[in-house]
Amino acid sequence: MSKSRRLDPAELAALSKHDRLAALRDSIATVGGKVGAATAMPAEPPTGRKRNPWDGADRSAPPSEQQADVGEADGPLVDGIVVPGGIGALLPGGGLAYGSVVGCRGSTGILTGLLAAATGSGAWAAIVGGRRQRIGLLAVTEMGGRLDRLAVIDASGGDPLETVSVLADGVPLIVCDTPAAVPPKRAQTLTAKIRNQQGILVITDRVRGIRPDLTLTARPTAIHGLGPGYGRLRELHLTLEVSGRNTRPRRGELRLTANGNGRTAWAPAAESAAAARWSRAG
């Protein structure tokens, strides 16, 4: 496949694992980005009914079974990536909709939860960042994510927005976590491509100039298990606020806890956000 030719989703889907990854790497190389060696993309998406050509998750399960993993999210199940647990309970339809831009502000713990939900279900994802990666890959795996479905790209030597644009041809969930000031016309072009390709772009507070369809704002409220110079983090609480253009604002208190087998998950906290405070227990 030629570097100069636009990547076609149908053609990419028909390629083998090696050829698909090579095509994306070649395209990214033309804009000066550097593809990390952390992961590789899957050879073939799993079989089953799919809502989106890039969704590797098996949608053959009845909607009622899928909804059960989401929590208390009301309304129909999102046409996109379903997010289980406490995060999904606050999201419209229980997940991230295809063809949307999502802003993620504050704690990166929510980002790890979104990446774990996507890759754990079989979808592909990519992180476009800088030399200093601030999204914990270990945390993604502890939440049930798969690193073999996650590409980590150092775009510090090139144009991160062009890298995002190239990835949109073949990756359904892209997280852009690198400083970027986006001019209005370019923001319009990029968001239009995300919608046309039915992808999902998640931007952090490092990206300015792109107006998200949905904004997630996470603020830590309590830490349990740490003392003055000793202890082990047992539980983290944060407040998650969800707002958007076509959805009513939602707010909830979440807690990150371990389930005893090396896995962690975000779940609704027992105490309210108003009563939450910083707590240091030995």
What does this structure look like?
Residues 35-72 are annotated as: Disordered. This protein is of the alpha/beta class and 282 residues long. The protein has a domain at 80-213: P-loop containing nucleotide triphosphate hydrolases (Rossmann fold), CATH 3.40.50.300. It has eight helices and 14 strands. It has helices spanning 9-14, 17-29, 63-68, 85-90, 109-120, 137-142, 160-167, 184-196, and strands spanning 34-35, 80-82, 95-97, 100-106, 125-129, 150-154, 173-176, 180-181, 200-204, 207-208, 214-227, 230-244, 247-258, 264-268. The strands form three sheets. A ten-stranded mixed sheet has the order 1-6-5-7-9-4-11-12-13-14, with helices on both faces. A two-stranded antiparallel sheet has the order 2-3. Helix 6 (137-142) links the parallel strand 5 (125-129) and strand 6. It starts with 8 loop residues before the first helix and ends in a 14-residue tail after the last strand. The relative contact order is 0.15.
Put the structure in a nutshell:
Residues 35-72 are annotated as: Disordered. The chain is of the alpha/beta class. It has helices at 9-14, 17-29, 63-68, 85-90, 109-120, 137-142, 160-167, 184-196, and strands spanning 34-35, 80-82, 95-97, 100-106, 125-129, 150-154, 173-176, 180-181, 200-204, 207-208, 214-227, 230-244, 247-258, 264-268.
- The total count of strands amounts to 14
Parts with pLDDT < 50 across at least 5 consecutive residues = 1-5, 32-73, 271-282
The CATH class of the domain at 80-213: Alpha Beta
Helix content: 10-25%
* CATH topology call of the domain at 80-213: Rossmann fold
What string gives the helices and strands in order?
HHEHEHEEHEHEHEEHEEEEEE
Q: How does the major sheet shape up?
A: 10 strands, mixed
Indicate the overall shape.
Answer: globular
Main structural class:
alpha/beta
Distance, first to last CA:
58 Å
Please state the CA-atom Rg, rounded to the nearest Å: 19 Å
The side-by-side strand order for the widest beta sheet comes to 1-6-5-7-9-4-11-12-13-14
Total DSSP helices? 8
**What's the architecture of the domain at 80-213, going by CATH?**
3-Layer(aba) Sandwich
- The overall average pLDDT, rounded, is 78
The H-level CATH homologous superfamily of the domain at 80-213, spelled out, is P-loop containing nucleotide triphosphate hydrolases
- Report the portion of residues in β strands: 25-35%
Region (Disordered): 35-72
